[in-house]
Amino acid sequence: MRLNLNNDPDGGDGTARAHELLVAYLRRRGLRMTGEREALLRAAVLLQGGHFTLDELAREAMRLHAGASRPTVFRSLPLLVDAGILQPALVSGEARRYELALGRRHHDHLLCSRCGRIVEFRSEAIEKLQLGVASRHGFRLTSHVHELLGECAACRAAKRA
Amino acid sequence: MRLNLNNDPDGGDGTARAHELLVAYLRRRGLRMTGEREALLRAAVLLQGGHFTLDELAREAMRLHAGASRPTVFRSLPLLVDAGILQPALVSGEARRYELALGRRHHDHLLCSRCGRIVEFRSEAIEKLQLGVASRHGFRLTSHVHELLGECAACRAAKRA
DNA sequence: CTTCATGCAAAAGATTTGCAAGTTC
DNA sequence: GAACTTGCAAATCTTTTGCATGAAG
Predict the structure, then answer these.
(1) pTM
(2) What DSSP string runs through B54-84?
(3) A68 touches strand D (CB under 7 A)
(4) Are both B49 and B126 inside the same structural domain?
(5) Per the CB < 8 Å rule, is B129 touching A134?
(6) Other beta carbons less than 10 A from residue B134's beta carbon
(7) Which of A19, A153, B95, B137 yields a CA-CA distance of 20 to 30 A from B22?
(8) Domain count of chain B?
(9) Domain range for B37
(10) Do A54 and A27 belong to one domain?
(11) Do residues A113 and A94 both lie within one domain?
């Protein structure tokens, strides 16, 4: 399958930057840019703002690029993560969810266990305390998983009604 | 398979209390105490202090009670969790890990990504901040996942050597 | 005895892999 | 043209289920 790999497919939505990043990453590792990887990239950008599962990403990519197969998504997703374009966002719930990493500041998530709504949050104070906890135990902190589970305002209102 | 279900199998290690809890829970739901569930309970207590995967628990239970099958472990583990005897402890890493819940205070975990060492920690300050974050977003907090990933002191020393 | 639990084997999913054919550079 | 990718189908792995048999209460 042949695509315009040299034409910049950006619409001002950030695909350009993701594309550059991926190509650079692939080159560094002696790997190649392909139509399928391009589709995956565009799918991720389309789902931007969302927190999507591998399955959702695969569907979107297959829609964009008829023929992009599931095995290829399984093979390419780790590359996009490694390249710093995607990052794991949520581990709670049945399926792991990813989000665009691309230049986003670090944040953690609130998850409504009733309706699945996801809200991002950021707390300097918590980040600092985490560092303190880690160093108190002799750990050098490299990352963390922090997800707050509960019921969002809408669901609580619905329940009262 | 027949076991001394009425004899208290405790050795002062907490099995007695877990046993009571489980029997009470099962009775409430019209379910039955069996040798297999007993074995699962004892396995969990044997692995006490540890953070074990379903697989490790299954092996231990099968060792204790020849014949306890994997499907039964899959069927019973949720009961033990529901009864408040076990709780999920770690979601990072390849397999989810459980720990004895039994009367333990809430805590979170540090995980060394190099050697797998797990350290429990507790931070009132972080707990408070979490509540604040949640309420600021209209959430009623019901639980959370908080895992700090890094490198423990020993691994860092080993690397320098 | 009635109902629930179990083990086995089969089923269902999810993820991975071998390989021939097609693409990228 | 050489090396990397892909899709397909098959192979693995993990978890779940149907069902006949065995236990618990």
Answers:
(1) 0.91
(2) HHHHHHHHHHHSTT--HHHHHHHHHHHHHTT
(3) yes
(4) no
(5) no
(6) 22
(7) B95
(8) 2
(9) 15-100
(10) yes
(11) no
**CB-to-strand C contacts below 7 angstroms:** A 1-3, 5, 32-35, 54-55, 70-71, 74-75; B 26, 30-32, 34, 36-37, 67-69, 71-72, 75-76
Task: Residue A125: list chain B partners with CB under 8 A.
Answer: 129
Examine residue A95 and state whether it is found in any structural domain, yes or no: yes
Q: What are the pLDDT tens digits along chain A (161 aa)?
A: 444 443 444 456 778 999 999 999 999 999 999 999 999 999 999 997 799 999 999 999 999 988 789 999 999 999 999 999 999 999 998 899 999 999 899 999 999 999 999 999 999 999 999 999 999 999 999 999 999 999 999 999 999 88
Closest CA to B40 of B27, B29, B26: B26
Token pair for residue B124?
């009132």
Chain A residues whose CB is inside 8 A of the B125 CB are 129
d(CA B6, CA B102): 21
Which residues of chain A have a CB within 8 Å of the CB of B148?
Answer: 130, 133-134, 139, 141, 144
A36/A19 same-domain check: yes
Q: Please check whether residues A53 and A116 belong to one and the same domain.
A: no
Amino acid at A110: L
